[in-house]
Amino acid sequence: MKDNKNLIVGHLGKMDYGKAWDFQSELFKENVDIKLKNRQLELDGQAATKSTKNYFFLCEHPHVYTLGKSGNMENLLINNATLKEKNIAFYKSNRGGDITYHGPGQVVGYPILDLDNFSTDIHVYMRNLEEVIILTLREYGIYAGRIPKLTGVWLDFEKMQNPRKICAMGVKMSRWVTMHGFALNVNTDLEYFNNIVPCGIEGKAVTSIQAELGKEVAIKEVEKKLIKHFIDIFEIENFEFQNSGQLN
Known about the structure:
By secondary structure, this protein is α/β, with parallel strands linked by helices. It is 28% helix and 29% strand. The chain is built from 5 helices and 12 strands. Strands 1, 2, 6, 7, 8, 9, 10, 11 and 12 form a 9-stranded mixed sheet that branches. The protein has a 3-stranded mixed sheet with strand order 4-3-5, with no helix packed on it. Strand 7 (144-147) and strand 8 form a beta hairpin. The radius of gyration is 18 Å and the shape is globular. The model has no long low-confidence stretch (mean pLDDT 94).
């Protein structure tokens, strides 16, 4: 079937991490099942009957720490009692990467893409996601980039005098279908990162757009810029907006 570079863009609002994970997982499984069925049809000498769909969801989460499948529990620096006292949820996730924080004032992006429609190279995919963030930050006069072997988007990534991460990333992929994504610190309370070793990386700071500019930035404005650059970087041909997490 012809590559499908159409995109459904949705906003999940302020959603519990577990609920967002379930929501993603359903669409992820749907795409994987379509690919498995199409593959079997091809083996039987028949034409595929259904195309996968590409999604890009944005949301905010209540306070939560999530640990990737390759993460180390030692990078969570507080115990369960303290988590409960501070009303912070904790999940062991099936994404890549180590531990990170999600919370109010942070834009979380969840692309659920069939990379057969784009590039079947996980490294290209991750660099493209990083580029979406880099271009968005540039619109705020923030010069950001990459540090070799450290996934995500960083400031002071060249001189390395005070390198600080502004966007964390972690994904899951099966049969070239993706889920999970990135977390961009906009007006995030950075104090919550003090309870973890962010992404399992010692000795490097975390920052936000607000911290760098010295003022709050409108979340919706950031989201619009992220969507624009996502569409450009992934060369989306057509897109439509869904205003809620409920898709038909």
